C-alpha cells in the first residue's frame, strides 16, 4: 500500500524542523502534495473590529478561517485538521459546506457541525488565529490589512492557550493529571482523526 506522503507524523516532523529554524512569526506548513496547498497561520490579539471580521467570515467574502487560540495547544493541531480538510475537498467527501468550515469540524471531537463551528470558530473573542489555505492565489495580505488588531508571533501561542478549556474540549477526564504537553498533543491529534469511528 502506498504511504500517504503527508501523514500526521510527516506534518509533525516538518513542524519540528520549523520550530528549530525560526521564531514562528507566521506558521506555515505544506499540506499533502496532491493538494498543492500550504497552510498559513497568523495570530492576532486585541482585535477591535471583531464584528466586521465575523461578518466577512460568515458571508464567505473572506477566504480564511478564524480559530480561537485558547483551544489550540500547538499549531500542528491546525495542520492536521487542515490536511484532512483539503484532502476531503479534493475527494469530494467533505462533511461541511466549504474547506474552511471543514477545518473547524476536524478540530472538534463532536460530529455535530454547528457545535464544532461555534466551539472553535469566531464569536466575540478579540484574540484570534487567522488561517489561510494558499495555492496559486494569495488573498492573505488584503484580508490581514483589514484586521484592526496587534499581530503576534505564532510562537507566543502559549500565552493565549487555556489548558483547562483544552482538556475539557478534548475529554481529558480520566487521563492522568501529570500528562506532559507533547503527550497531550499526541492524544488530541489521535482523537481528532478517529472521531468518525470512536465516540468520545
TrEMBL record:
User: Does tRNA processing appear among the keywords?
Assistant: yes
GO CC annotations, alphabetized? nucleus
Localization recorded for this chain is: Nucleus
Keywords, A to Z?
Nucleus, tRNA processing
**What domain of life does the UniProt record list for this protein's source?**
Eukaryota
Question: Is the keyword Nucleus assigned to this protein?
Answer: yes
Family matches, as InterPro entries:
CGI121/TPRKB (IPR013926), CGI121/TPRKB_sf (IPR036504)
Location (main, coarse): nucleus
PANTHER family in alphabetical order: CGI-121 FAMILY MEMBER, EKC_KEOPS COMPLEX SUBUNIT TPRKB
Q: What is this protein called?
A: Uncharacterized protein
What organism is this sequence from?
A: Loxostege sticticalis (Beet webworm moth)
